[in-house]
Amino acid sequence: MAMIEVRVPSFGESITEVTLSRWLKNDGDLVALDEPLCELESEKATSELPAEQAGRLKIQVPAGSVVAVGDVIAWIEPHPLASPEVPSPDALKSQKTLSQKLDEGNEEQEAPQPQVLASPAAAKLMRETGIRLAEGSGKKGRITKADVLRAQQTSTTPQPPGRTERRERMSTLRKTISKHLVAARNTTAMLTTFNEVDMKNIMELRSRYKEAFQQKHGVGLGLMSFFIKACCYALKAYPILNARIDGDDIVY
């Protein structure tokens, strides 16, 4: 059998190129039919590209590259070990006997952990944030991006001390959103909105401790201290608010 080309599929009439965000398999790995090979990011969504044939994967384009629709990003070489074979009746009987023996010997061992299902966007966000979820709110427990965002918001993991900087390349989807936001700012009338907040609890807290605070630290307890505290909590939950854009990179 001839090698099969792995081409970038069409994502719609308006989309001509996508970003190959990452490979789910390594070069030279054996892949099964319909097994996810890589993640492709368009201006609208992130999707997985399945294998059209079982065989050995030959990667042609590295992760992080921008590729056009229809480009060949890999080859799949037919391989006998990647194709499922129908076992004989004797082999099935022997396999069943061996399985029973293994089950009897491993009754007291810990059961294997179930495979965690996550959408491509959720899996990418979990890699970026380090959050691990065992189950989500999607169908059959599938983890969604909203599940990861909720877990990130409620996370209380302490951050390491010091001020560090890291760069992350913007996805095609985020670059499109950024471009549209800048265009909207330059072409539409911008308005200022005001939100009212009930400060009763903070005022009572300040009145209760302002004298003790003055005696201990030698300075008055102002309202700005509470505002800064709230901002610190917000930045821990959403660190991208403290980031900047440098070319095609997000600098945290």
Strand order in space, largest sheet: 1-8-6-3
- Mean of pLDDT: 80
Report the portion of residues in β strands.
15-25%
Q: What is the percent of helical residues?
A: 25-40%
Shape: elongated
* SS-derived structural category: alpha+beta
Query: What is the radius of gyration computed over CA atoms, rounded to a whole number of angstroms?
Result: 27 Å
Based on DSSP secondary structure assignment, what is the total number of beta strands? 11
Distance between the termini: 49 Å
Uncertain runs are 107-113
Element order: H for helix, E for strand: EEEEEEEEHHHEHHHEE
The helix count comes to 6
Largest sheet: 4 strands, antiparallel
Q: Care to describe what's here?
A:
- The protein has helices spanning 89-105, 120-129, 145-154, 172-187, 200-217, 224-237, and strands at 4-7, 17-23, 30-31, 36-41, 46-50, 55-59, 66-68, 72-77, 167-169, 244-246, 249-251.
- With 252 residues, the chain is α+β, with helices and mostly antiparallel strands.
- A hairpin with a 4-residue loop joins strand 4 (36-41) and strand 5 (46-50).
- Helix 2 (120-129) runs parallel beside helix 3 (145-154).
- The longest helix has 18 residues, at 200-217.
- The protein is elongated.
- The two termini are 49 Å apart.
- Mean pLDDT is 80; it is low at 107-113.
